[in-house]
Structures are given as structure tokens and as C-alpha cells.
Amino acid sequence: MQLIKSIWRTLTRPAVHYSLGFLTVGGFVAGIIFWGGFNTALEMTNTEEFCVSCHEMRNNVFEELKPTIHYSNRSGVRASCPDCHVPHNWTDKIARKMQASKEVWGKIFGTINTPEKFEAKRRELAEHEWARLKANDSLECRNCHEFDSMDFTLQAGRAAKQHSTALASGEKTCIDCHKGIAHQLPDMTGVEGWH
What we know:
It is built from 10 helices and 2 strands. The radius of gyration is 24 Å and the shape is elongated. By secondary structure, the chain is mostly helical. Helices cover 61% and strands 2% of the residues.
């Protein structure tokens, strides 16, 4: 009981201008407001509308996505930019957002603001994304496509063979075979094993 009284006195005793209790509650409320604002901003930047709000994305890679099965298909299930380019796990998402700050820097300084500049950097940009997907075992692909849910009997012969081999070996990940699945490939001249 004495401990509780001591804590209560400390919390209610004025600290120069405000009590420790007021500062604690105020800090807690400010933290909630900051966290809410931060999370709201994070989610706003995690939408397709945000991604295509700059003409570099809208006029280049978004136009390439439209004729693909990831944009329009018989079932109506559609992948948006963040589905493929932003991890769902919160800590991975934050790391990706920090990485994406370089892309904002590129937007500000116009490194890909014309189709010609974009084409000149396409291979570099693609290789960065392929390396990221390779490093995380194509996590964003696996959020929708799971080997365990695949019915190999319904796949074309070559696809079934490749998928079952990849599943059995565990050495390959989606991006090893599916480069260019949603966007045009860059010039692959000189890339070993590419045909």
C-alpha cells in the first residue's frame, strides 16, 4: 500500500509546470496520434492510386501491366502495384518503404521522367527488383500463389514439370523463371542462361 501511495504522489506531484502523470498521459496520447498519422500515411502510400500518381509510373510500367493477366482476367482477381512490390509483413513493409525513398529522390531529380530515360534505366531498375524478390524467396508472389495449392494436373505439361521440379528442389523461386510476367523485359543481351 505504501508503494502505491508513493507512486501516486510521484505521478501527481508537479514537475516544474506539469505533473508526471499529466506528462505520461500526454505523451501516451501524443504517441497514439503520431502512430495513427504515421500508419495512415503509410497506408495511403500503399495504394495503386498513389503509385500511378506520377507520370513516370502511369505512362510506363502501369501501361505495361494493363494487358497482363495480373490486371485483367476471367476471375476478376487483380494484383495492384503494392501487391507485388510491397511486402505484407509490417517490418518488411517498413524496410521496403525506406528503400523506396530512393525512388522518390529519383522522381524529384527526374532520373526517369521521360520514356527515353526510363528505357535507359529499365534494366538496372528491373535487376534491383529481381534481386529483392530473389532475396525474399518471391514472398509477394507467394502471398497469392502457393505451390501447395497448385493442381499440376490442370497446368500445361511444361509448367507442371517446372513447378513440380522447383517445389521438389527448393532451389528456385518464382522470379527465376517469371521475369517479365507483368512488365516488359529490358534488353537481356549478355544475360547468362537467357534465351
